[in-house]
Amino acid sequence: MTHASLQRLSFDMTWVNLRRRTNIPATIDYITLPALRKFEVLANEPRPYILSCPFQAIEYTRLIGLFHRSQCSLTVLTISVPMSVEAFLIHVLSQSPALRRLDVFVNASIARDAFKALALDQGKVPCLEQLYITDTPIRMENSGLLEDAGGFHTMILSRLGGDSRLDTLHLSLMTHWSHQPLALPVPQDSPFCDLFRIKDEGMDVQFFLDMKDCLVDEEARASFFGSS
């Protein structure tokens, strides 16, 4: 079945879906969406049991099959839960050269691969203008952003010059579900300190630590970067 005009498709992760052990229904195998521009996997009820529940391999296969079958050109991609970089993200980025906005959730398991895939020299999403990254360590997990700060920094630097169109970078690190103290404040030579320079050079940069921008808010800044 082809829906020639549908431009937005959203899946909402809920407790009901998790109990059914499926988030992506089999009916998606029979749908073609050539006009699809905006795809979202949302967690409007973000809870540890939702953010820690992995997708099944068949669900990744269904989604990749949908994009391949539809030959659509995504411009907006939102992933509010951790999804496999190898099984999903790389394939979607490769099929979406016109992508302009990416909102992605990372954790310690996928951050390194996600940052590597997003580096401009990998040739994916060359038109990317807005990048939003969310990290919410759960229980005893480490922070993906903190654990691979170097990989994150390398990825951002790759998109600062040349043909890159990136003009917006928003980061969010939520700590309220972590059962262990994170490695904060970061060292004085942390790659994250370069965010101040990048912001001063004109990019829209925000870094929210528990909903406070630590590039602006003094208390959040001291918590993340330490007292100067």
Walk me through this protein's architecture.
It comes from Armillaria ostoyae. This is F-box domain-containing protein. This protein has helices at residues 15-19, 48-51, 57-70, 85-94, 111-118, 144-147, 149-158, 194-200, 218-225, and strands at 8-12, 38-42, 76-79, 101-106, 130-135, 168-173, 204-209, 212-213. The chain has an 8-stranded mixed beta sheet with strand order 1-2-3-4-5-6-7-8, with helices on one face. The protein has one domain. The N and C termini lie far apart (61 Å). The model has no long low-confidence stretch (mean pLDDT 91). Helix 4 packs parallel to helix 5. With 228 residues, the chain is α/β, with parallel strands linked by helices. The longest helix is centred in the first third of the chain and has 14 residues, at 57-70. Strand 3, helix 4 and strand 4 form a beta-alpha-beta unit.
